[in-house]
Amino acid sequence: MSLAYLGTSEFAAGVLRALWARERWRPELVVSRPDRPQGRGRHVSSPPVATFARELGSELAQPEDVHALDLGRFDDIVVCAFGVWIKEPLISHPGLINIHPSLLPRWRGAAPIERAIMAGDREAGVCIMRMVAELDAGPVCLTEREAVREDDDFGSLSSRLQEVAARLVLRWLEERPACREQGEGGMTYAEKIGPADRVLSASRSRDENWRVVRALSPHIGAKVGDLGVWTAAPAGEGPPAGELAVSGGRLLWGCGDGALELLEVQPPGKRRMPAADYARGL
């Protein structure tokens, strides 16, 4: 059986690693997004999947248009966090499946892990699904649930979901289970994280703001004004809502019903630092 793998993110690179470890299911072709300028310096860098594929010595393609590739020659095509809208004729390939890190139909869309943490969901998960024209609405072939822990951030939860995804896709390749339609009950949409989603709000509760910090750590980061916030923890009483204060060497930010202790922050134009170091300079 011939296999192509389409992916871009760190999450997708982890799943590729699991496939590569099984010689039978090593992709003959890895497809990722083109290299792009990244960060403040606009240095050209490769997506994680492309970097890992080069390390493996895998055949790699990074087309501007994935539909220009001849992927119909492969028996199976696995898509994971690829970030491109798949269209005809590729979407009708009988061996095409998608790995989506949510409990569909909850959190269809671009940022399911972040949105699950922000919403306070107690469960997340992974679905293996067939692809259809409507976003993340195809029949589901396999599902596995994963508890969201009280202190999970994006990094810890996505790491566990990556392991779930690898397990499920290997099971799908081995067993080919039947798929079932999702239905629309309980459907939610996980919109891409935008600048407004990063801003902590004094009108929200302490726990709501804490969930935002956790959902965006360690890859995006939350913000209090122009101060980046990477990690935080619930605190008791603190300054008035929306204000920063230093108490006993701790940096506290007031919320609607308590305070957050900021633990790692990033002042404008500077690197991340322990909040205690930042507090000493205030």
Structure description:
It contains seven helices and 17 strands. It has 282 residues and is of the alpha/beta class. The strands form four sheets. Strands 5-2-1-6-7-9-10 form a seven-stranded mixed sheet. Strands 12, 13, 14, 15, 16 and 17 form a six-stranded antiparallel sheet that branches. The radius of gyration is 21 Å and the shape is elongated. 38% of the residues are buried.
Number of H- or I-type helical stretches? 7
Mean pLDDT comes to 95
Please report the distance between the alpha carbons of the first and last residues: 62 Å
Order of strands, main sheet, comes to 5-2-1-6-7-9-10
Structural class by helix and strand composition? alpha/beta
Overall, the morphology is elongated
Largest sheet features? 7 strands, mixed
